[in-house]
Design goal:
The termini are far apart. This protein has a two-stranded antiparallel sheet with strand order 1-2. It is built from eight helices and two strands. 72% of the residues lie in helices and 4% in strands. Helix 1 runs antiparallel to helix 2 (41-56), helix 4 runs antiparallel to helix 5 (131-149) and helix 5 packs antiparallel against helix 6.
């Protein structure tokens, strides 16, 4: 699978590698499917993580390890959405806003997780070339995926906060395709957040009426 780390093409003096391109295209598809509340969101997310794991395994152990966590959360998301899909009339999950305790828990987990992961990255420099931003993006991604799995509208906000750091970091480290994809992520996040926001209000009453006692 060494071809995943080979050059696909050159654009604007940036060398685009296959793993970067394929993994991020799948990530983009995942976000679009999430907008549509499709159960396929999670298998595609898992496949994206698998592609990047194969690309990193053997020479970037830290990056490969992060993809294992992403794939594990994708499995959790698939299980959660598959369990909750019967609670709405259209067979999809019903978006909702997180409670204040849930928001506090996610913010606390994000802050503590970022510090813990960054310290690990600093202790083992081979795991990351930029410990603090890398830890922020990694932990933010996990928090966003967890919120998405729980059907929380706030997951879009979490993705937007990840994008604000992910775009400049990817360009700075030569991952131009990732940088461009993160820009597109930002647009999809704004549209998706609006859609989930509106649905959280429209679907709230049917979801409560149709929920099991």
């Amino acid at each position: 699978m060494n071809w995943l780390n080979s050059e696909a093409f050159v654009a604007f003096d940036q060398h685009i590698i296959w793993s970067d391109m394929i993994g991020n295209i799948l990530g983009l598809i995942t976000l679009a499917l999430g907008w549509r509340r499709s159960l396929l969101t999670w298998p595609v997310q898992f496949l994206s993580g698998l592609v990047l794991f194969v690309a990193f395994y053997g020479h970037l152990a830290g990056s490969a390890g992060k993809q294992v966590v992403v794939m594990a959360v994708a499995l959790y998301g698939w299980w959660q959405w598959n369990r909750d899909k019967d609670r709405s009339a259209d067979g999809h999950i019903v978006p909702r806003f997180a409670t204040w305790p849930e928001r506090a828990a996610m913010l606390g987990a994000a802050a503590a997780g970022t510090v813990a992961v960054a310290l690990i990255f600093k202790a083992y420099p081979s795991l990351s070339w930029d410990p603090w931003p890398d830890a922020y993006i990694f932990v933010g991604t996990i928090v966003a995926m967890y919120a998405q799995a729980r059907g929380m509208v706030e997951f879009w906000i979490a993705w937007l906060l990840v994008d604000l750091v992910g775009v400049p970091l990817n360009f700075a480290n030569g991952y131009a395709f990732s940088g461009f994809v993160y820009v597109i992520y930002g647009a999809l996040v704004l549209w998706g957040m609006r859609d989930w926001w509106l649905r959280s209000r429209k679907d709230a009453r049917p979801a409560l009426e149709g929920a099991p006692a």
